[in-house]
Amino acid sequence: MQSRSMALVDAFTTDPLSGNAAGVIPDADGLSDAQCQAVARELAVSETAFVSSSTEADRQIRYFTPTQAVDLCGHATIAAHAFLHDEGQLNAGSHSLETAVGTLQIEIEADGTVWMTQDSPTVVQQTIDYERLAEALGCEISTLQDVGADIPVARASTGLPVLVVPINFLESLGGLQPDFGAIEALSDDYDVAGIYAFTFDTLSTDSTAHGRFFAPAVGVDEDPVTGTASGACAAYFHAAGSAAFDDPPTDLTFEQGDFLDRAGRVRAQIEDDGSTRVRVGGQAVTTVEGTITIPDDETDDIIEA
User: Fold this and answer.
1) 128 and 251 co-located in one domain
2) Are strands 209-215 and 284-294 parallel, antiparallel or unpaired?
3) For 111-136, how does the pLDDT look when each residue is reduced to its tens digit (9 = 90+)?
4) pLDDT at residue 298 above 80?
5) Vertex 229: Cα angle to 228 and 231 (nearest 5)
6) Distance in angstroms (rounded) separating the CA atoms of residues 227 and 280
7) Structural domains of the chain, count
8) Which residues are annotated as catalytic?
């Protein structure tokens, strides 16, 4: 067996024990996917980032939930780069990152804010059975149809596809009683990681939207604060244009996690000079550092944190 350094890092916040916790293994060279999966299962946060060397970029990250690998994770990307910056292993400036969806650009500001340029966005309007969707989310059908008449449900992606669903009011969003089995079935039918429900009714007047992300299809019933889903929603807003905004914004702030007592804020920027690019950003704070013991490859040994 071998030991590796590990950390738990709260992303999209500067307050410990809020935002979205990610596992970070800063030196994952030589670890197999099976070993990474075992570590992610042991750390038991929504995603763990495994940082290793790359021949195509400055570094590579593999992402694992407790149950499976995923192609991309925004909050774990922010957490990993913020941790490496805080440890003095990364300087402020531009960095490249190899992921399963391609090479992405990362920008670290002097104050530790990490910006991640996501994959090229796609937004496709979906025909939806609102009765089925309301049953899956545990809400009245009117809370969906009130908003859906102007900005319909869409499948949006900036690296991780999600079903973007508008909700009429913050009270309705907070009152959702999700049926995770039904949400997983919808996710499978629409080939998405989960459902990102949002409302323009926000806690802060400076925020653009308040969201909740349900992703049981990838092993996460509800994710506290989600960079990839926020990026997908930003792309969705850009595609909706004047249907959603009198003056569509290019700088956005997404609230998330408040209903889980894990409040975090995701910043997003949209650049469009003929091709649309979405960046998501935020800060992070390390809450746990230590080592983790990893069993030999292809064993079922228990991992001890």
Assistant:
1) yes
2) unpaired
3) 999 999 998 999 999 999 999 999 99
4) no
5) 65
6) 6
7) 2
8) 47
Q: Which domain holds residue 179?
A: 122-281
Q: Are residues 174 and 63 in the same domain?
A: no
Q: Decide if pLDDT at 244 tops 90.
A: no
DSSP character string of 264-303: EEEEEEEEESSSEEEEEEE-EEEEEEEEEEEPPTT--PPP
Looking at residue 236, its amino acid is Y
In whole angstroms, give the CA distance from residue 129 to residue 185.
Answer: 13
Cβ neighbours of residue 258 under 8 Å, at least 6 residues apart?
Answer: 203, 210
Sign of CA dihedral 39, 116, 124, 223: positive
DSSP state of 254: E
Residues 75 and 253: their CA atoms lie apart, in Å, by 15
Query: How wide is the angle at C-alpha 85 spanned by C-alphas 81 and 88, nearest 5°?
Result: 145
Q: What CATH number has the domain bearing residue 61?
A: 3.10.310.10
Q: Between 28 and 119, whose confidence is greater?
A: 28
